[in-house]
């Protein structure tokens, strides 16, 4: 862990500590500690971890990060712009040295590509890579080229030489929308496109920027990637089912459902299960972390969960407004028994449920329409 | 003659490549190429039309919301569904704040560095900067101490020798004209805007759960229920929050964005004569009145810069060509455009094998198709929107446009330019920032009268639909005229085509060899240093490119459609 931290800082041997850098940028020690406390909360750590995080960030010199965009829609970049603790300005100016990010960077053309090449050459094995968007493999990867090179070509070089890669959003994690049936371009996520790379998946459509900052801080603090489930997703953000943290769960258990958009149940916040909510099969911290400075999340705003952090959700979780079949349990006791909400059991359950859904999709359309009525 | 390549064009959404020929210090010809393809329209086939908005929303995460709006509108048009006034007003508020936030981000974070040299800000005198700021606006953050603080932070950042996202840029380029004080002021506002944008867009989170990609759109209305007495609905508290956020948006546009825009533009007036482009402008009209449906910004077409005539827009006049795009029409042969309802195509990459140095621009060179209106290329965007409104006699638009022209001491002819495009975006932003609170007031008024309806569910059940239906949905997105066309059969999507703003603007040549708007606008652009083509970035960024949007087309033949239906 210490060694990793040293490697991260190694590119800037004489550089001052992060907290000093922040002070110079007008971020007070108090603000810095507040940020560390927020991070502790985002990481689902006890608040007592805050001093440890502060200490760790102090020791780290600004590590270099390069952000690659492939078959993307830039929503994960936009999500980054909405980051609150720390803000995007603090992230890209103070905490990290973001040496390549097409949507943000001032340089263009060959000067932009030079900046990327410099990082790969001079900081081999020491920098962080972030990938947004899927990577097409079909027809030798010609469906996504930047500066005349294919996405898969640059991804293998850049992610293959990175200390670690963070896949932001469902496309970079699992292929996402471009990989939805019939996957016209052979799109895949980073783990599949760059075998052997160290990849942390932060799916979501888009990802929640708070989970990205938490993952970066986790990495800088503990010198390792957070513990993950079998899908490569950190347990601190994806270890629990939405259904189990949902503020409307009591209405599910009580059998109180929205039946029509705008009906009385909808107005008072009944469960959206019958309107197609995929919360019972989706692992993500939306109900607790929420979005846009914790303002809201889909269920709180009256629309069901779409299941966007699950692999293949574009095929397995659609139609959007079709209710999930056979969600176990009406009543807390039964639910707790049959689903099991422990972190360890979570992954296995995700697979099991995924299988159930896939099997159901095989049914005829006639069954589907019946289900909707 | 030199051939130059700018790839990637950064500070845009998506992947754009420009190849240009330079002759005697000017661009003599240019080719616009998009180098990324996903095939989302193929993916849509066979799916539930009520889901389409959720898929098409992912065309783009920068213009998030716009493809949701166009999508629900095309399904509603196909099925003849009228949405309740409250839902229309909520949509207007969502579209309004999207426009405002998007334009501000574009100006400060995507476009400003083409005009603002951050390194020059290091040499600024903070006291003079404060005086400059106070002379153009009464925005309170304008003291010498404040600007010194920003400059000190900048100095500390630069002193570390690691410039991160600001490394390797064209700093010190002779085309940068602003004095150090103006550069420092703009840099300070670059940082302020970064904070501002994440606050004001919370309107989307309150009404639609999150941003980017709000999750609230429904065919027939919206998913946010209204109940003043419920904590789980749009209630008095949330309406008050929205009111405050819209006010915050408006004041920043009035007191920071517009004064900055005018201050910066006054140093670059020669750009009022550069970057004109095709001279044809298309706007679909936007912000329908919740009862009459009449759009606040009118629809229309202007041809050849003639502001004395505005033609009505007819959807059947839109066609797309693929003669210079990496697709092949199976029938009829190339050389003919197809209307989006018949928009069937097959991807056929004929470009060079990567890694490559140059594209075969004489043949096919882009994943963007070439849309045409009555066989003519059209520029779309805030400039087109304002020109159509201006020429149609829209009083507020005429007042705002004339006001800005007067402040810059220039005539309306400068509108047809790179500077005109950038100025029009600011005026568009100002007008919408001032109008959006009025839609909120109307919504509050409606709710006060007891109307809480947000969804028309009469045709929610696909069993109520005809066996076959087709429709189109238009939207004036921040970047301009956006259209979705859908065919529905047996409750499923039979065909889906989107012709989006950046498809119009980033269009390659068509069958007749007519250049697209980017390409035409670049011809004649002066270049001080072909190795640092800052001037190309200025004109391209003035369009606010959004390339993921522009390329979304299908690749399947008609037969494959059946196979891909997974459900």
From TrEMBL, chain A:
Which residues belong to any copy of the Cytochrome-c3 hydrogenase C-terminal domain? 238-321
A GO cellular component annotation in the UniProt record:
ferredoxin hydrogenase complex
User: What cofactor does this one take?
Assistant: [3Fe-4S] cluster; [4Fe-4S] cluster
Quick check: keyword Lipoprotein in the entry? no
Single GO BP term: anaerobic respiration
Annotated [4Fe-4S] cluster 2 binding sites: 243, 246, 271, 277
- Which residue range or ranges hold the NADH:ubiquinone oxidoreductase-like 20kDa subunit domain? 73-218
UniProt-annotated binding residues for [4Fe-4S] cluster 1: 73, 171, 205
Q: What Pfam families does the record point to?
A: NiFe_hyd_SSU_C, Oxidored_q6
Looking up SUPFAM superfamilies in the UniProt record yields: HydA/Nqo6-like
Provide the binding site for [3Fe-4S] cluster. 286, 305, 308
GO molecular-function term, one example from the UniProt record:
metal ion binding
- The answer to whether the entry has keyword Chloroplast is no
Q: Which UniProt keywords are present, listed alphabetically? A: 3Fe-4S, 4Fe-4S, Iron, Iron-sulfur, Metal-binding, Oxidoreductase, Periplasm, Signal
Note the subunit structure: Heterodimer of a large and a small subunit.
Q: Which PANTHER family match?
A: HYDROGENASE-2 SMALL CHAIN (PTHR30013:SF7), NIFE / NIFESE HYDROGENASE SMALL SUBUNIT FAMILY MEMBER (PTHR30013)
Member of which family?
Belongs to the [NiFe]/[NiFeSe] hydrogenase small subunit family.
What is the protein name for this chain?
Hydrogenase small subunit
Q: What is the lineage of its organism?
A: Bacteria, Pseudomonadati, Thermodesulfobacteriota, Desulfuromonadia, Geobacterales
From TrEMBL, chain B:
Q: Which domain of life is it from?
A: Bacteria
Provide the binding site for Fe cation: 63, 549
Entry GO CC: periplasmic space
Subcellular location(s) of the protein: Periplasm
Principal location class: periplasm
- Please name the InterPro entries in this protein's record: Ni-dep_hyd_lsu, Ni-dep_hyd_lsu_Ni_BS, NiFe-Hase_large, NiFe/NiFeSe_hydrgnase_LSU
Keyword list, A-Z: Iron, Magnesium, Metal-binding, Nickel, Oxidoreductase, Periplasm
Q: Which cofactor does it need?
A: Ni(2+); Fe cation
Question: Do you know which Gene3D superfamilies this protein is assigned to?
Answer: Cytochrome-c3 Hydrogenase, chain B
**GO MF annotations, alphabetized:** ferredoxin hydrogenase activity; nickel cation binding
Pfam families annotated for this entry?
A: NiFeSe_Hases
PROSITE patterns tied to this protein: NI_HGENASE_L_1, NI_HGENASE_L_2
- For the ligand (Ni(2+)), the binding residues are 60, 63, 546
Which residues hold Mg(2+)? 41, 552
Query: Which PANTHER family has this protein been placed in?
Result: HYDROGENASE-2 LARGE CHAIN (PTHR42958), UPTAKE HYDROGENASE LARGE SUBUNIT (PTHR42958:SF2)
Query: How is the subunit organization of this protein annotated in UniProt?
Result: Heterodimer of a large and a small subunit.
Protein family according to the UniProt entry: Belongs to the [NiFe]/[NiFeSe] hydrogenase large subunit family.
Instruction: Please identify the protein, giving its name as recorded.
Output: Nickel-dependent hydrogenase large subunit
